[in-house]
Amino acid sequence: GTPGDDNWLPPDWRTEIRVRTSGTKAGTVDKFYYEPITGRKFRSKNEVLYYLEHGTPKKKSVKTAENGDSHS
């Protein structure tokens, strides 16, 4: 495919293109990806791929959620 093709995206996922109209980065194109079931918004292909692979969005700190059921 040509660059910018979204054929890697799962079916039903929605993309949105936004062009900045003001500020120092006016004219910059932002692309957002929307997950169809939850409506969750992703800012990059990498975030979407991570979400698809792990079933969870990328977080700054990963250590918090998984340790909820640890028994000492």
Characterization of this structure:
By secondary structure, the chain is an alpha+beta fold. 14% of the residues lie in helices and 19% in strands. It is built from 1 helix and 3 strands; from the N terminus they run βββα. Strands 1-2-3 form a 3-stranded antiparallel β-sheet. It is extended, with a radius of gyration of 16 Å. The mean pLDDT is 85.
Write the layout of secondary structure elements.
Blueprint: E1 14-19, E2 29-34, E3 41-42, H1 45-54
Antiparallel strand pairs: 1-2, 2-3
Structural class by helix and strand composition:
alpha+beta
Distance between the termini: 52 Å
- In the predicted model, the low-confidence regions spanning at least 5 consecutive residues are none
Strand content: 15-25%
Mean pLDDT: 85
Total beta strand runs? 3
The largest sheet, given as strand count, sense and whether it forms a barrel, is:
3 strands, antiparallel
Rg, alpha carbons = 16 Å
Label the overall shape: extended
H/I helix tally? 1
